[in-house]
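#struct-help
A.M.: can someone run this one for me? Single chain, 405 residues.
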Amino acid sequence: MSTWKRQAGLLAAAALLITACTGPGASPGPTGAASPTGGASPTGAASPTGSPGTTGSPTGMTEVQLQLQWEPQAQFAGYFAADREGYYADEGLQVEFLRGGAEIIPQNVGSDPNGPEFTISWVPKVLEVRANEAQSDLVNIAQVFQRSGTRSVSWKAGRGPEPVSQDDITSPEHFAGKNIGVWDFGNEYEVTAAGLLHDLVQNEDYTKVIQPFNMDLLLNREIDVAEAMIYNEYAQVLEAPNPDTGQLWQPDDLNVIDYNEVGTAMLQDAIFARAAWLAEAGNEDIAVRFLRASFRGWIFCRENPDTCIQYTVDAGSTLPAGHQRWMMNEINPLIWPTPNGIGSMNGDAWAQTVRVSVGAGIIPGDPEPGAFRSDLALAARQAITEDAVGADFEKGTVEVTPGGN
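D.P.: on it. C-alpha coordinates below:
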Protein backbone atom coordinates (compact mmCIF):
# COMPACT_ATOMS: atom_id res chain seq x y z
CA MET A 1 0.00 0.00 0.00
CA SER A 2 1.21 3.55 -0.65
CA THR A 3 2.24 6.13 1.90
CA TRP A 4 0.63 9.56 1.69
CA LYS A 5 2.42 12.49 3.28
CA ARG A 6 3.02 16.19 2.70
CA GLN A 7 6.51 17.37 1.90
CA ALA A 8 6.75 21.03 2.85
CA GLY A 9 10.13 21.57 1.21
CA LEU A 10 8.85 20.21 -2.11
CA LEU A 11 5.77 22.38 -1.95
CA ALA A 12 7.71 25.52 -1.24
CA ALA A 13 10.22 24.80 -4.00
CA ALA A 14 7.47 23.98 -6.47
CA ALA A 15 5.65 27.19 -5.61
CA LEU A 16 8.80 29.24 -6.22
CA LEU A 17 9.38 27.56 -9.57
CA ILE A 18 5.79 28.04 -10.65
CA THR A 19 5.91 31.71 -9.73
CA ALA A 20 9.06 32.15 -11.82
CA CYS A 21 7.69 30.49 -14.97
CA THR A 22 5.99 32.40 -17.75
CA GLY A 23 3.75 31.48 -20.66
CA PRO A 24 0.42 29.64 -20.94
CA GLY A 25 1.41 27.01 -18.41
CA ALA A 26 1.76 29.59 -15.65
CA SER A 27 -1.04 32.01 -16.38
CA PRO A 28 -3.63 32.51 -13.66
CA GLY A 29 -7.05 31.25 -14.59
CA PRO A 30 -10.23 29.51 -13.61
CA THR A 31 -10.68 26.61 -11.32
CA GLY A 32 -13.65 24.31 -11.37
CA ALA A 33 -15.00 20.80 -11.44
CA ALA A 34 -12.90 17.70 -11.88
CA SER A 35 -11.07 17.49 -15.19
CA PRO A 36 -8.34 15.31 -16.65
CA THR A 37 -6.14 18.09 -17.81
CA GLY A 38 -4.62 19.39 -14.62
CA GLY A 39 -3.35 22.60 -16.17
CA ALA A 40 -4.98 25.41 -14.25
CA SER A 41 -4.00 28.15 -11.86
CA PRO A 42 -0.37 27.95 -10.69
CA THR A 43 -1.12 28.73 -7.07
CA GLY A 44 -0.44 25.94 -4.63
CA ALA A 45 1.48 22.70 -5.08
CA ALA A 46 1.26 18.97 -5.00
CA SER A 47 -0.46 17.09 -2.21
CA PRO A 48 -0.58 13.37 -1.53
CA THR A 49 -3.53 11.14 -2.13
CA GLY A 50 -4.27 7.46 -2.08
CA SER A 51 -5.90 4.46 -0.51
CA PRO A 52 -7.09 4.76 3.07
CA GLY A 53 -5.20 2.97 5.77
CA THR A 54 -1.75 3.02 4.14
CA THR A 55 1.30 2.45 6.28
CA GLY A 56 4.97 3.38 6.28
CA SER A 57 7.51 1.93 3.86
CA PRO A 58 8.61 -1.63 4.66
CA THR A 59 12.28 -2.09 5.50
CA GLY A 60 14.42 -2.21 2.39
CA MET A 61 11.86 -0.65 0.05
CA THR A 62 12.89 2.27 -2.14
CA GLU A 63 10.53 5.20 -1.70
CA VAL A 64 9.63 7.26 -4.78
CA GLN A 65 6.97 9.82 -5.62
CA LEU A 66 4.69 10.07 -8.65
CA GLN A 67 3.14 13.46 -9.46
CA LEU A 68 -0.28 12.92 -11.00
CA GLN A 69 -1.57 15.09 -13.83
CA TRP A 70 -4.86 15.72 -12.01
CA GLU A 71 -7.05 14.55 -9.16
CA PRO A 72 -7.40 10.78 -8.67
CA GLN A 73 -9.51 9.35 -11.47
CA ALA A 74 -9.42 6.45 -13.92
CA GLN A 75 -6.93 8.39 -16.04
CA PHE A 76 -4.37 7.06 -13.54
CA ALA A 77 -5.97 3.68 -12.80
CA GLY A 78 -2.96 1.72 -14.01
CA TYR A 79 -0.74 3.29 -11.36
CA PHE A 80 -3.29 2.65 -8.63
CA ALA A 81 -3.55 -0.95 -9.83
CA ALA A 82 0.23 -1.36 -9.80
CA ASP A 83 0.11 -0.31 -6.16
CA ARG A 84 -2.89 -2.36 -5.08
CA GLU A 85 -1.88 -5.50 -6.99
CA GLY A 86 1.57 -5.40 -5.41
CA TYR A 87 3.52 -4.79 -8.60
CA TYR A 88 5.46 -1.88 -7.11
CA ALA A 89 6.21 -3.96 -4.02
CA ASP A 90 7.40 -6.78 -6.28
CA GLU A 91 9.98 -4.32 -7.62
CA GLY A 92 11.02 -3.18 -4.16
CA LEU A 93 9.28 0.17 -4.51
CA GLN A 94 7.04 2.14 -2.19
CA VAL A 95 5.23 4.74 -4.32
CA GLU A 96 3.67 7.91 -2.95
CA PHE A 97 1.12 9.50 -5.26
CA LEU A 98 1.06 13.31 -5.29
CA ARG A 99 -2.36 14.45 -6.37
CA GLY A 100 -2.79 17.09 -9.01
CA GLY A 101 -5.63 19.57 -9.36
CA ALA A 102 -6.56 23.06 -10.42
CA GLU A 103 -3.71 24.56 -8.37
CA ILE A 104 -1.02 22.18 -9.65
CA ILE A 105 1.12 22.38 -12.78
CA PRO A 106 2.68 18.91 -12.76
CA GLN A 107 5.48 19.64 -15.21
CA ASN A 108 6.64 22.52 -13.01
CA VAL A 109 6.48 20.45 -9.83
CA GLY A 110 8.34 17.61 -11.54
CA SER A 111 11.02 19.97 -12.87
CA ASP A 112 12.09 21.07 -9.40
CA PRO A 113 15.50 19.58 -8.52
CA ASN A 114 14.00 18.38 -5.24
CA GLY A 115 10.74 17.30 -6.82
CA PRO A 116 9.21 13.86 -7.31
CA GLU A 117 11.12 11.17 -9.13
CA PHE A 118 8.33 10.65 -11.68
CA THR A 119 5.75 12.97 -13.22
CA ILE A 120 2.76 12.45 -15.51
CA SER A 121 2.17 15.30 -17.95
CA TRP A 122 1.35 16.07 -21.57
CA VAL A 123 4.27 16.16 -23.99
CA PRO A 124 3.80 19.71 -25.42
CA LYS A 125 3.53 21.14 -21.91
CA VAL A 126 6.87 19.59 -20.99
CA LEU A 127 8.45 20.70 -24.27
CA GLU A 128 7.32 24.22 -23.46
CA VAL A 129 8.80 24.27 -19.98
CA ARG A 130 12.02 22.64 -21.26
CA ALA A 131 12.32 25.46 -23.81
CA ASN A 132 11.65 28.12 -21.19
CA GLU A 133 15.21 29.22 -20.42
CA ALA A 134 16.24 25.65 -19.59
CA GLN A 135 14.12 25.61 -16.44
CA SER A 136 13.41 21.91 -16.85
CA ASP A 137 15.38 18.78 -17.65
CA LEU A 138 12.35 16.49 -17.68
CA VAL A 139 12.77 13.55 -20.04
CA ASN A 140 9.96 11.45 -21.48
CA ILE A 141 10.85 7.90 -20.42
CA ALA A 142 7.56 6.20 -21.33
CA GLN A 143 4.80 7.32 -23.69
CA VAL A 144 1.77 5.66 -22.12
CA PHE A 145 -1.08 7.30 -24.08
CA GLN A 146 -0.66 6.59 -27.78
CA ARG A 147 -3.60 8.72 -28.89
CA SER A 148 -5.06 12.08 -27.96
CA GLY A 149 -8.25 12.26 -25.92
CA THR A 150 -9.00 15.88 -26.87
CA ARG A 151 -12.23 16.69 -28.66
CA SER A 152 -14.31 19.76 -29.52
CA VAL A 153 -18.05 19.33 -29.01
CA SER A 154 -20.97 21.34 -30.36
CA TRP A 155 -24.71 20.92 -30.84
CA LYS A 156 -26.00 19.63 -34.13
CA ALA A 157 -28.17 22.07 -36.08
CA GLY A 158 -31.62 22.12 -34.56
CA ARG A 159 -30.52 20.27 -31.41
CA GLY A 160 -29.51 21.39 -27.98
CA PRO A 161 -30.88 24.02 -25.59
CA GLU A 162 -32.49 27.25 -26.77
CA PRO A 163 -31.65 29.22 -28.79
CA VAL A 164 -31.34 26.33 -31.21
CA SER A 165 -28.32 26.59 -33.49
CA GLN A 166 -28.77 26.36 -37.24
CA ASP A 167 -25.07 25.75 -37.91
CA ASP A 168 -23.24 22.45 -37.88
CA ILE A 169 -19.66 22.85 -36.68
CA THR A 170 -17.98 19.69 -37.85
CA SER A 171 -14.51 21.01 -38.67
CA PRO A 172 -12.15 23.66 -37.29
CA GLU A 173 -12.78 25.68 -40.47
CA HIS A 174 -16.29 26.28 -39.09
CA PHE A 175 -14.84 28.10 -36.05
CA ALA A 176 -14.92 31.38 -37.97
CA GLY A 177 -17.12 33.92 -36.20
CA LYS A 178 -17.95 31.52 -33.36
CA ASN A 179 -17.34 31.48 -29.61
CA ILE A 180 -14.88 28.61 -29.13
CA GLY A 181 -14.43 27.28 -25.62
CA VAL A 182 -11.06 25.92 -24.49
CA TRP A 183 -9.15 25.36 -21.31
CA ASP A 184 -6.05 27.44 -20.91
CA PHE A 185 -2.57 26.58 -19.55
CA GLY A 186 -1.49 24.38 -22.44
CA ASN A 187 -4.66 22.33 -22.70
CA GLU A 188 -5.87 24.31 -25.74
CA TYR A 189 -2.91 23.75 -28.06
CA GLU A 190 -4.53 21.16 -30.33
CA VAL A 191 -7.60 23.37 -30.81
CA THR A 192 -5.54 26.49 -31.51
CA ALA A 193 -3.33 24.64 -33.98
CA ALA A 194 -6.36 23.21 -35.79
CA GLY A 195 -7.72 26.71 -36.33
CA LEU A 196 -4.38 27.81 -37.74
CA LEU A 197 -4.57 25.02 -40.32
CA HIS A 198 -7.50 26.98 -41.76
CA ASP A 199 -5.84 30.38 -41.29
CA LEU A 200 -8.09 31.14 -38.32
CA VAL A 201 -6.46 33.07 -35.49
CA GLN A 202 -8.01 33.11 -32.05
CA ASN A 203 -9.58 36.41 -31.02
CA GLU A 204 -9.28 37.65 -34.59
CA ASP A 205 -11.26 35.16 -36.66
CA TYR A 206 -13.08 33.58 -33.74
CA THR A 207 -13.53 34.35 -30.06
CA LYS A 208 -11.58 32.25 -27.61
CA VAL A 209 -13.55 31.64 -24.41
CA ILE A 210 -11.84 30.12 -21.37
CA GLN A 211 -14.04 27.36 -20.00
CA PRO A 212 -14.28 26.19 -16.42
CA PHE A 213 -13.45 22.49 -16.08
CA ASN A 214 -16.99 21.39 -16.87
CA MET A 215 -19.47 21.66 -19.74
CA ASP A 216 -21.79 24.26 -18.25
CA LEU A 217 -21.11 26.89 -20.92
CA LEU A 218 -22.09 24.48 -23.69
CA LEU A 219 -25.10 23.14 -21.80
CA ASN A 220 -26.25 26.72 -21.19
CA ARG A 221 -25.62 27.66 -24.84
CA GLU A 222 -23.13 30.35 -23.81
CA ILE A 223 -20.54 29.10 -26.30
CA ASP A 224 -20.79 27.44 -29.69
CA VAL A 225 -18.05 24.86 -29.17
CA ALA A 226 -16.57 23.35 -26.02
CA GLU A 227 -13.29 21.54 -25.53
CA ALA A 228 -13.77 18.14 -23.93
CA MET A 229 -11.76 15.05 -23.13
CA ILE A 230 -13.44 11.98 -24.57
CA TYR A 231 -12.98 10.25 -21.21
CA ASN A 232 -14.43 13.01 -19.07
CA GLU A 233 -16.23 16.16 -20.17
CA TYR A 234 -17.84 14.61 -23.25
CA ALA A 235 -19.58 12.18 -20.90
CA GLN A 236 -20.70 15.09 -18.72
CA VAL A 237 -22.92 16.27 -21.59
CA LEU A 238 -24.39 12.81 -22.11
CA GLU A 239 -25.02 12.51 -18.37
CA ALA A 240 -27.09 15.73 -18.36
CA PRO A 241 -30.86 15.83 -19.03
CA ASN A 242 -32.51 17.57 -21.94
CA PRO A 243 -34.68 20.13 -20.08
CA ASP A 244 -37.48 19.74 -22.63
CA THR A 245 -37.80 15.96 -22.40
CA GLY A 246 -36.15 15.05 -19.12
CA GLN A 247 -34.20 12.40 -21.01
CA LEU A 248 -30.41 12.35 -21.26
CA TRP A 249 -28.76 14.01 -24.21
CA GLN A 250 -27.63 11.52 -26.86
CA PRO A 251 -24.52 11.31 -29.09
CA ASP A 252 -26.80 12.05 -32.05
CA ASP A 253 -27.41 15.51 -30.57
CA LEU A 254 -23.73 16.41 -30.85
CA ASN A 255 -21.01 17.12 -33.38
CA VAL A 256 -17.59 15.93 -32.23
CA ILE A 257 -14.25 17.00 -33.74
CA ASP A 258 -11.52 14.41 -33.09
CA TYR A 259 -8.05 15.96 -33.29
CA ASN A 260 -6.53 12.58 -34.10
CA GLU A 261 -8.42 12.89 -37.40
CA VAL A 262 -7.83 16.61 -37.90
CA GLY A 263 -4.05 16.21 -37.80
CA THR A 264 -3.16 18.37 -34.79
CA ALA A 265 -3.33 15.68 -32.11
CA MET A 266 -0.37 15.82 -29.74
CA LEU A 267 1.00 13.24 -27.36
CA GLN A 268 -0.55 13.42 -23.93
CA ASP A 269 0.00 11.36 -20.75
CA ALA A 270 3.61 10.23 -20.51
CA ILE A 271 5.93 9.41 -17.62
CA PHE A 272 8.76 11.88 -17.13
CA ALA A 273 11.85 11.92 -14.95
CA ARG A 274 14.59 14.52 -14.53
CA ALA A 275 17.77 13.88 -16.52
CA ALA A 276 19.89 14.89 -13.53
CA TRP A 277 18.13 12.35 -11.31
CA LEU A 278 18.47 9.60 -13.93
CA ALA A 279 22.20 10.31 -14.14
CA GLU A 280 22.73 9.46 -10.47
CA ALA A 281 24.03 5.97 -9.73
CA GLY A 282 21.27 3.36 -9.47
CA ASN A 283 18.42 5.60 -10.55
CA GLU A 284 18.05 4.19 -14.05
CA ASP A 285 17.45 0.81 -12.43
CA ILE A 286 14.80 2.36 -10.17
CA ALA A 287 13.17 3.91 -13.23
CA VAL A 288 13.08 0.57 -15.07
CA ARG A 289 11.49 -1.11 -12.06
CA PHE A 290 8.94 1.67 -11.72
CA LEU A 291 8.03 1.48 -15.41
CA ARG A 292 7.75 -2.30 -15.38
CA ALA A 293 5.33 -2.24 -12.44
CA SER A 294 3.34 0.64 -13.96
CA PHE A 295 3.07 -1.13 -17.31
CA ARG A 296 1.79 -4.24 -15.56
CA GLY A 297 -0.78 -2.05 -13.81
CA TRP A 298 -2.11 -0.80 -17.14
CA ILE A 299 -2.17 -4.33 -18.54
CA PHE A 300 -4.19 -5.35 -15.49
CA CYS A 301 -6.68 -2.52 -16.11
CA ARG A 302 -7.07 -3.59 -19.72
CA GLU A 303 -8.14 -7.02 -18.52
CA ASN A 304 -9.89 -6.01 -15.28
CA PRO A 305 -11.50 -2.59 -15.76
CA ASP A 306 -14.11 -3.02 -13.01
CA THR A 307 -11.46 -3.76 -10.40
CA CYS A 308 -9.48 -0.72 -11.53
CA ILE A 309 -12.55 1.46 -11.19
CA GLN A 310 -12.79 0.38 -7.57
CA TYR A 311 -9.09 1.04 -7.04
CA THR A 312 -9.64 4.55 -8.40
CA VAL A 313 -12.55 5.15 -6.04
CA ASP A 314 -10.42 3.86 -3.16
CA ALA A 315 -7.66 6.28 -4.16
CA GLY A 316 -9.94 9.20 -3.34
CA SER A 317 -11.71 10.04 -6.58
CA THR A 318 -14.48 12.59 -6.17
CA LEU A 319 -16.17 11.54 -9.43
CA PRO A 320 -19.04 9.03 -9.15
CA ALA A 321 -18.60 5.39 -10.09
CA GLY A 322 -20.73 5.56 -13.25
CA HIS A 323 -18.57 8.37 -14.62
CA GLN A 324 -15.41 6.48 -13.67
CA ARG A 325 -16.72 3.46 -15.57
CA TRP A 326 -17.09 5.61 -18.69
CA MET A 327 -13.63 7.05 -18.13
CA MET A 328 -11.96 3.65 -17.74
CA ASN A 329 -13.65 2.46 -20.93
CA GLU A 330 -12.30 5.47 -22.86
CA ILE A 331 -8.82 5.49 -21.32
CA ASN A 332 -7.98 1.95 -22.39
CA PRO A 333 -8.36 2.73 -26.14
CA LEU A 334 -5.92 5.62 -25.76
CA ILE A 335 -3.30 3.06 -24.71
CA TRP A 336 -4.25 -0.15 -26.49
CA PRO A 337 -3.17 -1.45 -28.85
CA THR A 338 0.43 -0.23 -28.66
CA PRO A 339 2.14 -2.00 -31.60
CA ASN A 340 5.66 -1.69 -30.20
CA GLY A 341 4.65 -2.35 -26.60
CA ILE A 342 3.29 -0.15 -23.83
CA GLY A 343 5.43 2.89 -23.12
CA SER A 344 7.03 2.93 -26.57
CA MET A 345 7.37 6.14 -28.55
CA ASN A 346 5.57 6.41 -31.87
CA GLY A 347 8.02 8.36 -34.01
CA ASP A 348 5.34 9.80 -36.27
CA ALA A 349 3.27 10.98 -33.30
CA TRP A 350 6.36 12.57 -31.73
CA ALA A 351 7.22 14.35 -34.98
CA GLN A 352 3.65 15.65 -35.32
CA THR A 353 3.65 16.86 -31.71
CA VAL A 354 6.86 18.78 -32.32
CA ARG A 355 5.67 20.13 -35.67
CA VAL A 356 2.35 21.34 -34.27
CA SER A 357 4.07 22.79 -31.19
CA VAL A 358 6.46 24.80 -33.33
CA GLY A 359 3.75 25.88 -35.77
CA ALA A 360 1.49 27.05 -32.95
CA GLY A 361 4.31 28.96 -31.28
CA ILE A 362 4.39 26.72 -28.20
CA ILE A 363 8.13 26.14 -28.62
CA PRO A 364 10.58 28.13 -30.76
CA GLY A 365 12.05 25.14 -32.57
CA ASP A 366 12.79 21.45 -32.37
CA PRO A 367 13.61 20.31 -28.83
CA GLU A 368 17.16 19.55 -27.88
CA PRO A 369 18.25 15.90 -28.22
CA GLY A 370 17.37 13.86 -25.17
CA ALA A 371 13.81 15.12 -24.76
CA PHE A 372 12.76 11.48 -24.81
CA ARG A 373 14.51 8.15 -24.46
CA SER A 374 13.17 4.67 -25.19
CA ASP A 375 15.77 2.41 -23.58
CA LEU A 376 14.27 2.38 -20.09
CA ALA A 377 10.78 1.43 -21.29
CA LEU A 378 12.30 -1.24 -23.53
CA ALA A 379 14.24 -2.72 -20.61
CA ALA A 380 11.07 -2.68 -18.50
CA ARG A 381 9.02 -4.50 -21.17
CA GLN A 382 11.64 -7.20 -21.69
CA ALA A 383 10.94 -8.65 -18.24
CA ILE A 384 7.13 -8.54 -18.56
CA THR A 385 5.45 -11.88 -19.21
CA GLU A 386 1.98 -10.43 -19.82
CA ASP A 387 0.78 -9.14 -23.22
CA ALA A 388 2.34 -5.68 -23.46
CA VAL A 389 0.94 -4.94 -26.95
CA GLY A 390 -2.80 -5.58 -26.65
CA ALA A 391 -3.25 -6.30 -30.37
CA ASP A 392 -6.57 -8.04 -29.72
CA PHE A 393 -7.95 -5.27 -27.49
CA GLU A 394 -11.55 -4.33 -28.18
CA LYS A 395 -13.26 -1.38 -26.56
CA GLY A 396 -16.23 -2.28 -24.38
CA THR A 397 -19.56 -0.53 -24.03
CA VAL A 398 -20.72 1.47 -21.03
CA GLU A 399 -24.21 2.65 -20.18
CA VAL A 400 -24.40 6.36 -19.52
CA THR A 401 -26.02 7.12 -16.16
CA PRO A 402 -27.68 10.36 -15.01
CA GLY A 403 -25.04 12.55 -13.40
CA GLY A 404 -22.53 9.74 -13.81
CA ASN A 405 -23.90 8.01 -10.71
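A.M.: thanks! Residues 12 and 184 are 24 Å apart (CA to CA).
D.P.: also worth noting: Confidence is low (pLDDT under 50) at residues 1-47, 50-56.
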